[in-house]
């Protein structure tokens, strides 16, 4: 982890204040991915293929697609961007990618339809997220992975527990950032208690970042205030509690970690709410805080962008999916298991379809003969 601090800034920031460069947090994960890719190549296995589906002109989505492509190229991952002219064709393109054995990971660049009501669900974008196969979902947003996250199930193959779930990559990037920051995570405690005693406020309860992140941090032992435009909830110990007496200000003032994810230029979190020694993570593509002001707060740790760590987590999820479902050795194991299961099933009473037909025909003839005698 490194902090950005020029000589001029050193004269202006409060004592102990620091601004963290997310590139340094992403680096060890990307180094590990490059090592894994190299090991695959050494035994003659092609690098995994990630397919991106882009069907909108949203600048943030296009930028994310560019970052993904550059990172994959740099790290040795195969990446194919499929641009779709008409949004209505996204589902067919997505299903084609799901069914293509050459494809090991899929990312859909949202928003496409936004939150407009649809025939197939609360919104068409939500429906598309659930259409991505769990074997290819590098974003970790399909129903199976969301369900496991909210139930705090960490494996997809209970009770064997050999295949870890993937987690929503942007929310996971925030977790990895917090793990690298001082005083946020205590790894000396058991799993599920690493953030015990910490209070967190997350502003914006989106289904992509805000809600899954709140659940992940609560699963790690934190008390998490989830603040949205019309409500505040406390995530604690796998449960959700309404907070009628709280305000965004009261939540932020009692928090040691504050995460902002409001996707508008107009929003600014009042700096006076943030207490000394707070860690502040800006997830939104716009700055939700005044950088100059919060760096005047003693001991504050500020992370202005998470995009590079998010891409690293996307690649990490791809590698996990590859080893869970697509690696030739894993496919051979699954094939042997299917054969073993078939061998253990009891044989049917009939030998083949001809015997079934003969038995039915004989029964019918006998029934007709008996009917005539009557």
UniProtKB/TrEMBL annotation:
Task: Give the superkingdom in one word.
Answer: Eukaryota
Q: Name one Pfam family in it.
A: THF_DHG_CYH
Q: Which residues form a coiled coil?
A: none
The record's SUPFAM superfamilies line, in alphabetical order, gives:
Aminoacid dehydrogenase-like, N-terminal domain (SSF53223), NAD(P)-binding Rossmann-fold domains (SSF51735)
Under the heading Gene3D superfamilies, the entry gives: Leucine Dehydrogenase, chain A, domain 1 (3.40.50.10860), NAD(P)-binding Rossmann-like Domain (3.40.50.720)
InterPro entries according to UniProt:
Aminoacid_DH-like_N_sf, NAD(P)-bd_dom_sf, THF_DH/CycHdrlase_cat_dom, THF_DH/CycHdrlase_NAD-bd_dom
Residues passing through the membrane, by range: 349-371
Biological process GO annotation list?
purine nucleobase biosynthetic process; tetrahydrofolate interconversion
Report one GO cellular component.
cytosol
Q: Which residues form the Tetrahydrofolate dehydrogenase/cyclohydrolase NAD(P)-binding domain?
A: 168-319
An example of a GO molecular function for this protein is: methylenetetrahydrofolate dehydrogenase (NADP+) activity
In short, the EC number is 1.5.1.15
Top EC class for this record: oxidoreductase
> Keyword set for this entry?
Membrane, Oxidoreductase, Transmembrane, Transmembrane helix
Question: Per the database record, which ranges form the Tetrahydrofolate dehydrogenase/cyclohydrolase catalytic domain?
Answer: 20-117
Identification of the protein by name: Methylenetetrahydrofolate dehydrogenase
Lineage, uppermost ranks: Eukaryota, Sar, Stramenopiles, Ochrophyta, Bacillariophyta
């Amino acid at each position: 982890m490194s902090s950005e601090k020029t000589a001029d800034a050193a004269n202006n920031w409060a004592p102990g204040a620091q601004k963290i460069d997310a590139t340094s947090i992403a680096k060890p994960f990307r180094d590990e991915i490059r090592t894994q890719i190299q090991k695959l190549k050494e035994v003659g296995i092609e690098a995994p293929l990630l397919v991106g589906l882009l069907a909108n002109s949203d600048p943030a989505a296009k930028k994310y697609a560019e970052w993904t492509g550059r990172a994959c190229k740099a790290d040795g991952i195969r990446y194919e961007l499929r641009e779709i002219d008409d949004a209505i064709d996204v589902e067919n393109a997505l299903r084609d990618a799901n069914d293509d054995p050459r494809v090991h990971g899929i990312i859909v660049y949202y928003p496409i339809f936004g939150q407009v009501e649809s025939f197939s669900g609360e919104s068409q974008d939500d429906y598309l997220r659930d259409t991505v196969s769990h074997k290819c979902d590098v974003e970790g947003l399909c129903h199976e992975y969301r369900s496991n996250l909210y139930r705090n199930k960490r494996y997809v193959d209970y009770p064997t527990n050999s295949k870890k779930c993937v987690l929503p990559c942007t929310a996971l990037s925030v977790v990895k950032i917090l793990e690298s920051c001082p005083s946020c995570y205590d790894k000396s405690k058991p799993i599920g208690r690493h953030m015990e005693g910490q209070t967190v406020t997350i502003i914006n309860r989106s289904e992509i970042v805000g809600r899954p992140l709140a659940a992940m941090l609560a699963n790690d032992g934190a008390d998490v205030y989830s603040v949205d435009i019309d409500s505040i909830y406390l995530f604690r110990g796998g449960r959700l509690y309404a907070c009628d007496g709280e305000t965004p200000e009261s939540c932020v003032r009692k928090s040691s970690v504050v995460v902002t994810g409001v996707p508008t230029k107009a929003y600014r979190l009042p700096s006076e709410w943030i207490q000394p020694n707070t860690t502040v993570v800006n997830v939104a593509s716009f700055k939700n805080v005044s950088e100059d002001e919060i760096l005047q707060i003693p001991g504050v740790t500020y992370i202005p962008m998470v995009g590079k760590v998010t891409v690293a987590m996307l690649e990490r999820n791809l590698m996990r999916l590859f080893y869970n479902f697509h690696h030739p050795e894993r496919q051979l194991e699954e094939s042997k298991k299917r054969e073993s299961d078939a061998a253990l099933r009891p044989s049917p009473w009939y030998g083949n379809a001809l015997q079934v037909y003969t038995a039915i025909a004989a029964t019918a003839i006998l029934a007709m003969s008996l009917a005539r005698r009557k």
